UniProtKB/TrEMBL annotation:
Domain Acyl-CoA dehydrogenase/oxidase N-terminal: 39-155
Gene: mmgC_10
Taxonomic lineage of the native organism: Bacteria, Pseudomonadati, Pseudomonadota, Gammaproteobacteria, Moraxellales
UniProt keyword Nucleotidyltransferase present: no
Family under the similarity heading: Belongs to the acyl-CoA dehydrogenase family.
Organism annotation: Acinetobacter bouvetii
Protein name: Acyl-CoA dehydrogenase
Length: 595
């Protein structure tokens, strides 16, 4: 087993839980099979282990530097970037004629999981580039596609998304970056962007920034925002580079974690020489950017899950090898100490981590499966369900991945607090994920304030249908014993949702949304518990044809983790529901002067 992922877990999720083989029935994926899927996963695993994992700690210790002229990263970052690109992973999901593999999102995300576990800060350059290229491919004109996309897919060019400004965080409707129309149809871009990941580096020949800006005289608010391609160097139609495009690096930001990825402040048009190219229609920029943002939100969820997973495996390995203490029943002071994994409280911490990170990985792969059902199967219901759960996919792993990393440090004790082990870096790296691509609070407002009620609530109805399908499939008595309390908690969620919806319809919007973060956490726990029931049921069925002791241990571990999550974690939603349905105003009515 690699130190990055439990391979048995990944294959169990892909083939037992999400039935990756079924995807080959779609015409788009017809040339694939179990063998090609596993070949891609093996390639990703090999590159992640050989070219990404070895310099994870080094990139953290030697973060990128800026001498006022250029950015310098450690050499291993460029090597990893090149390996990723040459393997075709930047365009794996795209058409064969574009150099892609027409790979299902489910398999692509599983492959990406190895990289997120191995070295999240280095692979961030690749993921940002792939996402930016996807936006241009989806919404750009023919010239924009031919000028930029092939070179982004090949790794010659990198990509970013430039949204945030120094005085404008998540409230993008307030951005001030200007786009001034020019006679030739281009736009002069002028403004400053902040916290731009990968905004400058030395690993690619060019950087293609996707910049949100307001065209001169456009209305305030989100309806006045447009999206522009703004390359670092002006680019000829054949992809060759011309002069600098007046995109200046003002400085690098120094972060708690994720240090290998540059975080930049960029000045666009300091010398009035920055040219941008409008993507699609004016005023539709936020709509176009949401393709990249939603992709990034699912990616953040995956990253949080896998950094949590890496810490879990590290603490599990340590607990199996670290002798200390004796069991409470052993009163013989001369007896041999047991490995700490024998202690029940260590088991508790490992079991909590396992339930968080394996549940989170399942959640991310569920999102990937829905993307495939929608894009390859033209299933609009899958798109609606994906839209509903995206806030959960982003937020649950981002909240509970760092909790898993915190527990991993605790398992190692004092050793976990040192840099001699990877768990402290995992915690620092993962602490970014609850912040970027929409904080927990923003995602909660999106879910409770918008997503639940879109399409007359059909997304929620579709979720309940899928949950009911799992419940109907359960036959084993042991799993039924877990399903019964789950049904009770599910009714709590349904009742709470109805009461909050009624309150908003009656004009109590502020009161209903005041504790939205509780609702998001409650929904997250419910979906994860459902996925654990699904995994437990599939594990129980797999026992019938499992003959190897190692496989049986793995399946038993799945059942125990499901039992833990439903008995220990899920009941917490009852207290959350009480606060929500009683419209508790402890936070709402707190006055700034009282702090």
């Amino acid at each position: 087993m690699t130190s990055l992922i439990n391979d048995k877990d990944l294959h169990f999720l892909l083939y037992n839980v999400f039935d990756a083989a079924e995807l080959t029935q779609f015409e788009r994926y017809a040339e694939h099979d179990h063998t090609t899927f596993n070949s891609i996963l093996d390639t990703a695993k090999g590159i992640a282990e050989d070219f990404f994992a070895p310099h994870n700690a080094k990139a953290d210790a030697h973060e990128p530097s800026f001498d006022g002229q250029k950015v310098t990263t450690i050499a291993e970052v460029k090597t990893a970037w090149k390996q990723f690109a040459e393997a075709g992973l930047l365009c794996a999901q795209h058409n064969y004629e574009q150099g892609g593999m027409q790979l299902p999102t489910l398999i692509n995300m599983a492959a990406n999981a190895y990289f997120m576990s191995a070295n999240p800060s280095t692979v961030a350059y690749s993921f940002l580039t792939a996402a930016a290229a996807n936006v241009i491919q989806a919404f750009g004109n023919a010239e924009q596609k031919s000028t930029f996309v092939p070179h982004m897919f090949s790794g010659r060019f990198a990509g970013t998304m430039a949204l945030t400004e120094p005085n404008v965080g998540s409230s993008l409707g307030d951005l001030t970056t200007k786009a001034i129309p020019q006679a030739d149809g281009t736009y002069q871009i002028k403004g400053q962007k902040m916290f731009i990941s990968g905004g400058d580096q030395d690993i690619s020949e060019n950087i293609v920034h996707l910049v949100l800006a307001r065209i001169q005289d456009a209305p305030q608010g989100v309806k006045g925002i447009s999206l522009f391609i703004v390359p670092k160097f002006r680019t000829h139609a054949d992809g060759s580079l011309a002069e600098s495009n007046d995109v200046q690096l003002a400085g690098l930001l120094h972060k708690m974690g994720y240090r290998g990825t540059t975080s930049t402040v960029l000045n666009f048009g300091e010398n009035d020489q920055c040219i941008g190219y409008l993507i699609g229609e004016a005023g539709h920029g936020l709509k176009y950017m949401f393709k990249m943002m939603n992709e990034a939100r699912v990616g953040v969820g995956l990253g949080a899950a896998m950094i949590g997973y890496r810490g879990y495996l590290a603490s599990l390995n340590y607990a199996k090898q670290r002798p200390q203490g004796r069991l409470p029943t052993d009163k013989n002071s001369s007896s041999k100490p047991v490995n700490i994994i024998q202690h029940t409280d260590v088991k508790r911490m490992l079991l909590a981590q396992k339930s968080y990170v394996e549940g989170s990985l399942a959640l991310c792969l569920l999102a990937a499966r829905l993307i495939d059902e929608h894009q390859a199967g033209q299933n609009e219901d899958s798109a609606m369900l994906l839209d509903l759960i995206t806030p959960v996919v982003k937020s649950f792993p981002s909240a509970y991945g760092p909790k898993a990393n915190d527990l991993a440090i605790q398992v190692l004790g004092g050793a976990g607090y040192t840099r001699d082990y990877p768990v402290e870096q995992c915690y620092r790296d993962n602490r970014l994920n609850p912040i970027h691509e929409g904080t927990f609070g923003i995602q909660s407002l999106d879910l409770l304030g918008r997503k639940l009620w879109q399409h007359q609530g059909k997304g929620l109805a579709l979720l309940m249908q899928r949950i009911q399908h799992t419940l109907n499939e359960i036959q084993d008595q042991h799993i039924l014993e877990l399903a019964e309390p789950f049904k009770q908690y599910l009714r709590t969620v349904q009742t709470t949702t109805q009461q909050l919806g009624n309150a908003m319809m009656q004009g109590q919007v502020e009161q209903a949304l005041a504790n939205s973060a509780l609702y998001l956490d409650m929904m997250g726990k419910t979906i994860i518990a459902w996925l654990w029931l699904e995994m437990a049921n599939k594990a129980q069925l797999a026992f019938a044809y499992s003959t190897q002791a190692e496989d049986q241990h793995f399946l038993a571990g799945k059942l125990q983790a499901a039992r833990y999550f439903i008995r220990w974690e899920l009941p917490k939603i009852e207290h959350q529901a009480k606060l929500l349905t009683e419209f508790d105003d402890s936070c709402l009515n707190m006055q700034p002067e009282w702090f």
